Amino acid sequence: KSLKALFFKWFEFMLLLMIIKESINSQRILRNVLMVILFTAGVQACDGIFQQLTGDDFIRGNLLATTGVMTASFKNQNSYSSYLAVVTLIFISLILMPDLTKKDKLCVFFLALLCGTCLLLTRCRGAIFGFFAGLVLFLFLTRNYRITAACVLVFFIAVLLIRPLQDKILSTLLYG
Fold first, then answer.
1. Are the CB atoms for 106 and 158 separated by under 8 Å?
2. What per-residue string of b and e applies to 17-53 under the rule 16 or more CB within 10 Å gives b?
3. Which of 81, 90, 98, 115 sits 20 to 30 Å CA-CA off 130?
4. Interhelix angle for 145-161 vs 77-95, to 10°?
5. Phi, psi (rounded to 5 degrees) for 56
Protein backbone atom coordinates (compact mmCIF):
# COMPACT_ATOMS: atom_id res chain seq x y z
CA LYS A 1 0.00 0.00 0.00
CA SER A 2 2.73 2.46 0.92
CA LEU A 3 4.72 1.85 -2.28
CA LYS A 4 1.59 2.33 -4.34
CA ALA A 5 0.84 5.60 -2.57
CA LEU A 6 4.46 6.73 -2.96
CA PHE A 7 4.59 6.14 -6.71
CA PHE A 8 1.15 7.61 -7.36
CA LYS A 9 2.07 10.68 -5.32
CA TRP A 10 5.31 11.07 -7.30
CA PHE A 11 3.40 10.62 -10.54
CA GLU A 12 0.90 13.26 -9.43
CA PHE A 13 3.68 15.78 -8.76
CA MET A 14 5.49 14.94 -12.00
CA LEU A 15 2.26 15.47 -13.93
CA LEU A 16 1.65 18.75 -12.13
CA LEU A 17 5.21 19.88 -12.93
CA MET A 18 4.72 19.07 -16.61
CA ILE A 19 1.46 21.04 -16.69
CA ILE A 20 3.15 24.03 -15.07
CA LYS A 21 6.08 23.79 -17.47
CA GLU A 22 3.74 23.88 -20.46
CA SER A 23 1.66 26.73 -19.00
CA ILE A 24 4.52 29.13 -18.35
CA ASN A 25 5.44 29.96 -21.92
CA SER A 26 6.16 33.70 -21.79
CA GLN A 27 8.07 36.20 -19.68
CA ARG A 28 4.83 37.91 -18.63
CA ILE A 29 3.32 34.70 -17.29
CA LEU A 30 6.55 33.81 -15.48
CA ARG A 31 6.68 37.27 -13.89
CA ASN A 32 3.06 36.95 -12.76
CA VAL A 33 3.68 33.50 -11.28
CA LEU A 34 6.73 34.78 -9.40
CA MET A 35 4.77 37.77 -8.09
CA VAL A 36 2.04 35.46 -6.78
CA ILE A 37 4.67 33.27 -5.10
CA LEU A 38 6.29 36.35 -3.54
CA PHE A 39 3.00 37.73 -2.29
CA THR A 40 1.64 34.48 -0.85
CA ALA A 41 4.94 33.61 0.83
CA GLY A 42 5.08 37.08 2.34
CA VAL A 43 1.55 36.75 3.69
CA GLN A 44 2.28 33.28 5.07
CA ALA A 45 5.49 34.45 6.75
CA CYS A 46 3.71 37.45 8.30
CA ASP A 47 0.93 35.11 9.42
CA GLY A 48 3.49 32.80 11.05
CA ILE A 49 5.18 35.67 12.88
CA PHE A 50 1.76 36.99 13.95
CA GLN A 51 0.89 33.52 15.24
CA GLN A 52 4.17 33.33 17.14
CA LEU A 53 3.55 36.72 18.78
CA THR A 54 -0.19 36.51 19.53
CA GLY A 55 -0.91 32.80 19.76
CA ASP A 56 -3.22 32.46 16.74
CA ASP A 57 -2.90 33.22 13.05
CA PHE A 58 -4.97 35.85 11.29
CA ILE A 59 -5.99 33.75 8.26
CA ARG A 60 -7.60 30.63 9.76
CA GLY A 61 -7.28 31.24 13.47
CA ASN A 62 -4.99 28.25 14.09
CA LEU A 63 -3.83 28.36 17.68
CA LEU A 64 -0.17 28.18 18.58
CA ALA A 65 -1.09 26.45 21.84
CA THR A 66 -2.62 23.51 19.95
CA THR A 67 0.66 22.41 18.41
CA GLY A 68 3.19 24.43 20.36
CA VAL A 69 5.02 25.45 17.17
CA MET A 70 4.36 27.81 14.30
CA THR A 71 1.97 26.51 11.63
CA ALA A 72 0.50 29.76 10.20
CA SER A 73 -2.58 28.83 8.18
CA PHE A 74 -1.37 25.29 7.45
CA LYS A 75 -2.77 22.28 9.29
CA ASN A 76 0.61 21.23 10.70
CA GLN A 77 4.16 22.47 10.94
CA ASN A 78 5.49 19.85 8.51
CA SER A 79 3.44 21.23 5.62
CA TYR A 80 4.32 24.81 6.52
CA SER A 81 8.03 24.10 6.86
CA SER A 82 8.15 22.22 3.54
CA TYR A 83 6.48 25.17 1.83
CA LEU A 84 8.89 27.61 3.46
CA ALA A 85 11.96 25.58 2.50
CA VAL A 86 10.97 25.62 -1.17
CA VAL A 87 10.00 29.29 -1.40
CA THR A 88 13.09 30.41 0.52
CA LEU A 89 15.30 28.62 -2.00
CA ILE A 90 13.30 30.24 -4.82
CA PHE A 91 13.89 33.63 -3.22
CA ILE A 92 17.62 33.01 -2.95
CA SER A 93 17.71 32.11 -6.64
CA LEU A 94 15.78 35.30 -7.47
CA ILE A 95 18.38 37.37 -5.64
CA LEU A 96 20.98 36.09 -8.10
CA MET A 97 19.01 37.19 -11.17
CA PRO A 98 20.86 39.99 -12.96
CA ASP A 99 17.64 41.56 -14.31
CA LEU A 100 16.32 42.57 -10.89
CA THR A 101 16.98 46.05 -9.56
CA LYS A 102 18.75 46.52 -6.23
CA LYS A 103 15.45 47.59 -4.66
CA ASP A 104 13.74 44.40 -5.83
CA LYS A 105 16.67 42.27 -4.65
CA LEU A 106 16.52 43.91 -1.23
CA CYS A 107 12.79 43.20 -0.98
CA VAL A 108 13.28 39.57 -2.02
CA PHE A 109 16.20 39.25 0.42
CA PHE A 110 13.99 40.53 3.25
CA LEU A 111 11.29 37.98 2.32
CA ALA A 112 13.90 35.20 2.16
CA LEU A 113 15.16 36.15 5.61
CA LEU A 114 11.61 36.30 6.99
CA CYS A 115 10.69 32.92 5.48
CA GLY A 116 13.98 31.39 6.66
CA THR A 117 13.30 32.59 10.20
CA CYS A 118 9.80 31.12 10.09
CA LEU A 119 11.28 27.88 8.76
CA LEU A 120 13.53 27.63 11.78
CA LEU A 121 10.66 28.47 14.14
CA THR A 122 8.59 25.55 12.83
CA ARG A 123 11.21 23.26 14.39
CA CYS A 124 10.86 20.60 11.68
CA ARG A 125 14.22 18.92 11.31
CA GLY A 126 13.43 17.31 7.97
CA ALA A 127 12.55 20.58 6.26
CA ILE A 128 15.46 22.42 7.88
CA PHE A 129 17.93 19.76 6.76
CA GLY A 130 16.27 19.71 3.32
CA PHE A 131 16.68 23.47 3.11
CA PHE A 132 20.37 23.25 4.00
CA ALA A 133 20.84 20.41 1.50
CA GLY A 134 19.19 22.64 -1.11
CA LEU A 135 21.56 25.46 -0.18
CA VAL A 136 24.56 23.19 -0.60
CA LEU A 137 23.26 21.98 -3.97
CA PHE A 138 22.54 25.57 -4.93
CA LEU A 139 26.10 26.51 -4.00
CA PHE A 140 27.47 23.87 -6.36
CA LEU A 141 25.10 24.64 -9.23
CA THR A 142 25.51 28.41 -9.27
CA ARG A 143 28.54 30.10 -10.71
CA ASN A 144 28.27 33.14 -8.45
CA TYR A 145 29.83 31.77 -5.29
CA ARG A 146 30.22 35.14 -3.57
CA ILE A 147 26.52 36.01 -3.54
CA THR A 148 25.47 32.50 -2.55
CA ALA A 149 28.06 32.43 0.23
CA ALA A 150 26.89 35.89 1.34
CA CYS A 151 23.28 34.65 1.58
CA VAL A 152 24.39 31.68 3.66
CA LEU A 153 26.59 33.91 5.83
CA VAL A 154 23.78 36.41 6.49
CA PHE A 155 21.48 33.54 7.40
CA PHE A 156 23.97 32.15 9.92
CA ILE A 157 24.71 35.60 11.34
CA ALA A 158 20.97 36.15 11.86
CA VAL A 159 20.78 32.82 13.67
CA LEU A 160 23.76 33.72 15.84
CA LEU A 161 22.39 37.15 16.77
CA ILE A 162 18.88 36.10 17.73
CA ARG A 163 19.14 34.26 21.07
CA PRO A 164 15.58 32.79 21.14
CA LEU A 165 16.18 31.45 17.65
CA GLN A 166 19.37 29.74 18.84
CA ASP A 167 17.50 28.11 21.72
CA LYS A 168 14.77 26.86 19.37
CA ILE A 169 17.28 25.46 16.90
CA LEU A 170 19.26 23.69 19.60
CA SER A 171 16.14 22.25 21.21
CA THR A 172 14.89 21.10 17.80
CA LEU A 173 18.14 19.44 16.82
CA LEU A 174 18.89 17.90 20.21
CA TYR A 175 15.49 16.94 21.58
CA GLY A 176 13.20 16.76 18.54
1. no
2. eeeeeeeeeeeeeeeeebeebbeebbebbbbbbbbbe
3. 98
4. 140
5. -145, 155
